[in-house]
Amino acid sequence: MSTEQELNDFLKGVERRAFKRTTYAVRDEDAALDIVQEAMIRLAEKYADRPAEEWPLLFQRILSNATMDWFRRRKTREALVQNFSSLQTHDEDEDAGDLLEFLDGADNTHQDGAGEPLLLRKQTLALLEEEISRLPERQREAFLLRYWEELDVNETAELMGCSQGSVKTHCSRAVQALAKALKSRGFAP
Amino acid sequence: MNPSSLSEPTALDRAGHLLAARLDEGLPAIGADITERLRFARERAVARARHARLESAATAASAPAWAGQSGWALAGPGGAVAGRWSFGDARSGNGRGEGSGWTKLVSALPLLILALGFLAIQDTLVEHQILAAAEVDAALLTDDLPPQAYSDPGFAEFLRRQDR
Asked: CB-side exposure of B71: number of CA atoms within 13 Å?
């Protein structure tokens, strides 16, 4: 049985990312805090006795559900716009060139950001966060789970309730859209 | 530039991880107020977990231990009386059918009580209806006016005019 200290440590380790991830989705810090708190409490009440290794996936699922519940409750115009925008088609071939150029640009920059001015790094981050918020909901979720939470394709597909192929498609479109947006504004990754 | 190279997971994953790594830079910049509210939320969640554990432990301690299937016994380590009801050791298989019967009987008891309650209510209602009908009959029979008068059309018309 997992201890209280383990639960506390786990939540401490995921709370910041959970907050940011939720903020990208709902674009409201107060709402994001409420959702993260709700997810933490749901995990603590229902799954505290489960092995600690199961918590990361459980927490991501609970957080996704809590975010969806928030959207359902609020039913804002934003949510509808995001859903409709996810139906838009993309020109894969056109985006392919952007991604490869983006990666070429990345090779020319310092990976640790040491040589990059602080202001530029902050601007890049702000732009990236803005673009992530603009992504269609499923693409954003796939991108954040796959690359930020570092889940594998199978785990991401399981959490999102879709096929592995769909996860790859969502991730591909998200990365291409982000790379294209950064490149068009003259930023390196 | 070859677009087909995009299909290689490494190119996509590399770009994805590069972008995600940028996001990590924003984590330390989260404001103190947000951090404090996250800490509060975390502590609240941990307290809830503690409360849930205590509650389930208390429930397990106070409820009859329906652990076995072999009949009523005051069980404890080595067969000593533990101060609570328990259904002995299911593995022994002793009286398994009897224990199952007891469980079914106890489970059916609330339903039995409910059914008896409904029957009692129905009985009372029927009795009330009979008494009310008897009162009307008695009033009609003891009145100066014969009951046949109420079936007479002329008398009915007379009553209607009286009402007006």
From this structure: 7
